[in-house]
């Protein structure tokens, strides 16, 4: 593969690199440091428009995207904070535009906020994520908007986003095993951490939950805090009927287009967004819902590569997908999506997988045991936390798959091309296992988010 020329780093990227030499990259679960810095900055987190706060193990990014699309369909200006980014740091901050679609933060605005937060910290101990969270609050407080969608980085109770005292609504998406070293090794412990974003008396929307133990913790926490709570499948729901999405809640029923984001799991994500935007106090029309289903976008989540640099290495006609899902729960919903694609058009499925060492690879791979033809495990460039591809291949074997390590995504695509017989159906290829890998692929392919 021809090496791509890296663009010169932006002013914001230079400032982040400087801060990363001074402060740790990891997590240090506490709110004290970010509150100290925010106080010096004049408490920008208390000067925000309506906040939609999103936690959960899986589906946070998708429900955030649906909430944004829904509000923008109603002409609202919506600021959005997400993490991690795929390619550029700027992706973490989308600035709302009244009557239009939000745009990634301007580099000069971003760099200025980084410098101001760094100065406010005064050289004291703080993590980079806490700095970046404070940056978001500062930027969002100074640019008028109608709403802020705030995605939790990890956990909830001690996540640095959890300083907003009165969110318009808190959303808790599906709970699964992830970040066990920080959050606990049982789903009910993880659910308790995620439930930490609930605030007394403020509305809560609970997304589709796989585990009854997690749901019990979430509902009991909402009840203890006297939060008005709505639960997926009990108070609101969505399902496919005759190629349409039928959404229903206590306010009525809507017959909508299927969402642009692929996979049946997105039906529940779309439903949670609709119910949450209503709970936040916004009027939601059927026209808004229709437009949102047709315009929603979320890079790196079941994203098909229809063009770009990497396609030249795959067999002609290959169907190539990128997804950043990285835990057992995500593996199950992605595998379900691949199986539904197989029902519509049969193709051999190859996995190209890279993961970092905070994930549980056997559980992820196990979801594909009955549908994947072969697995190529690859390194994640520029990640000190990647699982060695040889070790990752052994995890795939442990899950019942046949696997081998490869040097890169491009090399894995070449291997698939060499194995492919022209008379066979062109393969379906899923590149995934890590948001970091998804970001690298989108960068190398020339299709970075905008």
TrEMBL record:
Domain Mur ligase central: 54-276
Bilayer-spanning residue ranges: none
Family: Belongs to the folylpolyglutamate synthase family.
Keywords carried by this UniProt record: ATP-binding, Ligase, Magnesium, Metal-binding, Nucleotide-binding
The protein's name: Dihydrofolate synthase/folylpolyglutamate synthase
Entry coiled-coil feature ranges: none
One Pfam family, short name: Mur_ligase_M
GO molecular function, one term: tetrahydrofolylpolyglutamate synthase activity
EC number: 6.3.2.12, 6.3.2.17
Keyword ATP-binding: yes
InterPro entries named among the record's database cross-references: Folylpolyglutamate_synth, Folylpolyglutamate_synth_CS, Mur-like_cat_sf, Mur_ligase_C_dom_sf, Mur_ligase_cen
């Amino acid at each position: 593969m021809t090496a791509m020329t890296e663009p010169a780093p932006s002013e914001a990227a230079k400032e982040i690199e400087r801060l990363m030499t001074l402060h740790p990259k990891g997590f240090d679960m506490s709110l004290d440091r970010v509150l100290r810095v925010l106080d010096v900055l004049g408490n920008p987190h208390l000067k925000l428009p309506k906040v939609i706060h999103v936690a959960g193990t899986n589906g946070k990014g998708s429900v955030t995207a649906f909430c944004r699309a829904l509000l923008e369909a109603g002409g609202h200006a919506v600021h959005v904070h997400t993490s991690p980014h795929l390619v550029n740091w700027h992706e973490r901050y989308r600035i709302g535009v009244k009557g239009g679609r939000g745009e990634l933060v301007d580099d000069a605005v971003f760099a200025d906020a980084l410098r101001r937060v760094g100065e406010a910290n005064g050289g004291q101990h703080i993590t980079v994520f806490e700095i970046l969270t404070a940056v978001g609050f500062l930027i969002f407080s100074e640019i008028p908007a109608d709403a802020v969608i705030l995605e939790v980085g990890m956990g909830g109770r001690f996540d640095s986003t959890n300083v907003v005292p009165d969110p318009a609504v808190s959303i808790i998406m599906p709970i699964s095993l992830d970040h066990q070293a920080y959050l606990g090794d049982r789903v009910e412990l993880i659910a308790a951490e995620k439930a930490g974003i609930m605030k007394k008396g403020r509305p809560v929307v609970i997304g589709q939950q796989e585990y009854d133990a997690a749901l019990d913790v979430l509902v009991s926490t909402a009840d203890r805090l006297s939060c008005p709570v709505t639960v997926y499948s009990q108070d609101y729901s969505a399902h496919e009927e005759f190629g349409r999405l039928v959404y229903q809640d206590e306010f009525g029923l809507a017959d909508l287009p299927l969402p642009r984001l692929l996979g049946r799991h997105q039906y529940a994500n779309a439903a949670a967004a609709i119910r949450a935007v209503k709970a936040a106090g916004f009027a939601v029309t059927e026209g808004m819902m229709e437009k949102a289903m047709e315009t929603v976008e979320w890079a790196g989540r079941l994203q098909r590569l229809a063009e770009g640099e990497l396609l030249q290495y795959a067999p002609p006609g290959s169907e190539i997908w990128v997804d950043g899902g990285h835990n057992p729960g995500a593996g199950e919903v992605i595998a379900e999506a691949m199986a539904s694609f197989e029902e519509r058009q049969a193709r051999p499925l190859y996995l190209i997988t890279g993961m970092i060492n905070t994930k549980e690879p056997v559980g992820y791979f196990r979801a594909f045991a009955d549908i994947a033809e072969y697995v190529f495990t690859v390194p994640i460039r520029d990640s000190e936390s990647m699982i060695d591809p040889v070790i990752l291949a052994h995890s795939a074997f442990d899950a019942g798959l046949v696997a081998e390590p490869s040097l890169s995504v491009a090399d894995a695509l070449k291997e698939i091309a060499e194995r492919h017989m022209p008379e066979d159906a062109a393969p379906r290829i899923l590149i995934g296992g890590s948001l970091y890998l998804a970001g690298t692929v989108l960068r190398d392919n020339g299709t970075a988010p905008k």
